[in-house]
Specification:
Layout: E1 7-12, E2 18-23, E3 27-32, E4 37-42, E5 47-52, E6 58-63, E7 67-72, E8 77-82, E9 88-93, E10 99-104, E11 109-113, E12 118-122, E13 129-134, E14 140-145, E15 150-154, E16 159-163, E17 170-175, E18 181-186, E19 190-195, E20 200-206, E21 211-216, E22 222-227, E23 232-236, E24 241-245
Antiparallel strand pairs: 1-2, 2-3, 3-4, 5-6, 6-7, 7-8, 9-10, 10-11, 11-12, 13-14, 14-15, 15-16, 17-18, 18-19, 19-20, 21-22, 22-23, 23-24
Length: 258
């Protein structure tokens, strides 16, 4: 599985039978687990992020041309629209598959229906919004920004909490599957975690360099983080151990559990 340029994001399909990648080369690609290319979806600008619909029928891609695109798994363009005034850095389906949320360098995040109609706009960040994610129950959203904050919102666009405490950019944000904990990857070389019921700092884990992505396993026992130094670290909460996965020669931009 390869691209001629940097791969910015990767995701397993909901049934874990397919893998999708997006790249600086302006393409999104769909693969089987044997590495066979099944579909290629082309964009005029780099593609920064992607999301499978929960039913596995569609793939949403976020691009540097400010457009959000919705594809079927045969690579056919189903729908597209200009979603922001600047690059779209992140996209995610709601858990019920009825909505999409996008985050952009224009400092906003937006919730859309699948027809491209704007439902809610999340405003307030003072710098690029680099990542956005729905909570597992679909009632809340989290955003990570270059303004050194992570923010928690309801679906009506009301800010519920601002999680801060250091002076570096946040690149990625992820909910634990039970919805009780939030993890954010930061430029300060740490993964920060907060309990949502009290907005309290739970813990932080350090890296030797900038962290680009953080993700929980579905079993909740593992937290994975990717770093600029070319490594991925797996923290096992139950065993209190850390495993380092090495082998990449450059930045690791994204990680995904099957």
């Amino acid at each position: 599985m390869n691209h001629p340029e940097a791969v910015y994001s990767v995701s397993f399909s909901p049934d874990s039978q397919l893998l999708a990648t997006v790249s600086r080369d302006g393409s999104a690609k769909l693969w089987n687990l044997q590495g066979q290319l099944l579909a290629e979806m082309l964009h005029p600008q780099p593609v920064y992020n992607l999301s499978f619909s929960p039913n596995g029928h569609y793939l949403a891609t976020a691009s540097g041309d400010n457009q959000l695109r919705l594809w079927d798994l045969q690579g056919n363009l189903h729908h597209y629209w200009i979603a922001h005034d600047d690059s779209i850095n992140s996209v995610s389906f709601s858990p019920d598959g009825q909505f999409l949320v996008t985050a952009s360098s224009d400092r906003t995040a937006k919730i859309w229906d699948l027809g491209g109609n704007l439902v809610t706009e999340l405003r307030g960040h003072q710098d690029s919004v680099n990542s956005v994610s729905f909570s597992p129950d679909g009632q809340f959203l989290a955003t990570a920004s270059g303004d050194y904050t992570v923010r928690l919102w309801d679906r009506q666009g009301n800010r519920l909490a601002q999680l801060e405490g250091h002076q570096e950019r946040f690149f990625d944000v992820s909910f634990r599957p039970d919805g009780k904990l939030l993890a954010a990857a930061s430029n300060d070389g740490r993964v920060w975690q907060w309990y949502l019921n009290a907005s309290l700092l739970a813990d932080s884990y350090g890296f030797p360099g900038e962290i680009t992505s953080a993700s929980f396993s579905s079993q909740r026992s593992l937290l994975a983080a990717a770093a600029r130094d070319g490594t991925v670290r797996l923290w096992n909460w139950q065993a209190q151990t850390v495993t380092v996965l090495a082998g990449h020669r450059e930045w690791v931009y994204a990680i995904s559990f099957s």
